[in-house]
Amino acid sequence: MTLPLKTSYPPMEAKSVAQLPSGDNWQYEPKWDGFRCLAFRDGDRIDLQSKSGQPLARYFPEVAEALLKLKAKQFVLDGEIVVPIKGQFSFDDLLMRIHPAASRVKKLALETPAKLIVFDLLVDDRGKAIADETLTARRKKLDAFAKKHFAKNKTIELSPQTSDFKIAKSWLAGAGGDVDGVIAKHLDLPYQSGNRNGMVKVKRLRTADCVVGGFRYASEGKLIGSLLLGLYDEEGLLHHVGFTSSFKAAEKPALTKKVEALIKPPGFTGRAPGGPSRWATDRSAEWKPLAPKLVAEIQYDHFTGGRFRHGTRFLRWRPDKKPGQCKMEQVEG
Fold it and tell me: What CATH code would you report for 207-330?
């Protein structure tokens, strides 16, 4: 058997907006706090692909096993991998699964099993590609697929959806814990692989995924003071857009070693950090460039003039995302 979509197929992406769009041509879904995942089954082969195109099956063997138990022998699903802990989804426990040791992954898979929440169907159980069909048609087929195949599988579940704007607003008002916002999708569009044309997201917190392009030491000692954040423009240049320094003292020694191992010029290929500014003391003139390897999700208040206007708050590392996906369009428009 051969699937009509390859595992390199990029998932549909969402553009961040300030308010939920309204109208008859929108479908709303909860935005789950997990790892985006395309799940491919072709006979006895299961592939789980992250948003950045990296394989995930070795980190979530219980999800791969659950997909193999479905009666359908061919399909491609779009969804989110989450780890429930005491009735809530835990991103920290999800991050722990990205571990190089297979024995550690196996242990965690038993102790903190993950789930796949499915919200789109791209190849049906007959092996037919339906990504070119409208969301209205795909969702109807996904509902039928889930009713037929998900009923007795506790690891795979269907994400709810609604066309009722009031319900979507109530989801947004209650965002937090499992749900960190609301997704809105155009009902009349085919699957928008690799672009943001058909889907928007609204989060209660304003967040962005940034490349760590450099760092500064603290004014005293050799521990880290702040991480320097970057976003890519359309030409592929990495611009310095701000900093984050919200780290606990106990975390700084390990973080310092983490970034020192990545010191490599130039760091930023577009706008680079300047000299002393209103941000900090005279140590601001000295910074260390890093290879663009680390992606951090940060919370911010305001973005204007090509930069975050205030210091940001570090939320978490995003090993599931490629640095090249951290683009300026997240915070503009």
Answer: 2.40.50.140
